[in-house]
Design goal:
- The protein is of the alpha/beta class and 275 residues long.
- It contains eight helices and seven strands, in the order E-H-E-H-E-H-E-H-E-H-E-H-H-H-E.
- The protein has a seven-stranded parallel beta sheet with strand order 3-2-1-4-5-6-7, with helices on both faces.
- Strand 4, helix 4 and strand 5 form a beta-alpha-beta unit.
- Bound molecules: nicotinamide-adenine-dinucleotide (NAD).
- Nicotinamide-adenine-dinucleotide binds next to helix 1 and helix 4.
Length: 275
Amino acid sequence: MSKVVVLTGAGGVLCSTLAIALAKEGNSVAVLDLRKDAADKVANEINTAGGNAIGVAANVLEKDSLEKAKEIVNDTFGKVDILVNGAGGNHPLGTTSNPFLVLEDLSNKTEGFKTFFDLDPKGIEFTFNLNFLGTLIPTQVFATDMVGRKGCSVLNISSMNAFTPLTKIPAYSGAKAAVSNFTQWLAVHFSKVGIRVNALAPGFFLTDQNRSLLTESDGSLTKRGQQIIDQTPMERYGKPEDLISTTLYLCDDASSFVTGIVIPIDGGFAAYSGV
Ligand code: NAD
């Protein structure tokens, strides 16, 4: 491959790994992130290893910021061929304290304890905006370069919680379901202009966002962390590198007849009923 690839959220754990892998294949890579320092760090690592990358500040929720980023990418590398929509995440205000509502919870007045009834619409809104609009708006901006050209595609990052919602995180599960649904919608919408649209649905990867939920300070697993391993037939968390081969496949012309799919990379989590 020798394409121009833009990745959002690529200062983060998963998409920095994908940026480095895509650069190793000979692509020119624009590392976009809200945190410019994080984007620059990844770009520097790629350039030091002999690749071709730039770090660019961009907020996936602000079209102006994305337009500015696109100008920089176009001036540096030319037209964009591939967009990886990696920015995403959850918000604590859209998360319940317990997996199930029990009567005792309704009289629990502990500071910070949240049932479904205490969920803050602001947390829900943040999560839906970041994951759904944060996928849609960058696509509006960068896919204009792809229309009518060959070998172009969009890769979204959904989650296995889009197939079956995980307990405690209704906003994040719903927002990722929206990302999967949008992946199919956009694949159909773009089918006549040469842009393929697919998604990865990663399972559980230990990252900064979920480390405190899944591991104790001594590195042992929390109850939820152990539950995940018990529910994962392959009995381990994903490593960021587990996402590379599927990403390369979906961004490459080797998958030129593949569009509108969401591929689980989850050690069998989504396939397993637990029995
Ligand atoms: P991460 O927090 O390490 O990376 C996310 C990056 O997005 C961060 O660098 C952050 O600065 C950036 N970002 C946040 N808001 C932004 C905005 N408004 N504009 C631009 N950039 C912004 O997270 P990660 O674990 O690498 O997750 C990457 C993607 O994979 C996300 O969409 C996440 O929802 C998804 N995912 C992660 C897991 C997992 O287990 N880690 C599982 C399934 C899906």
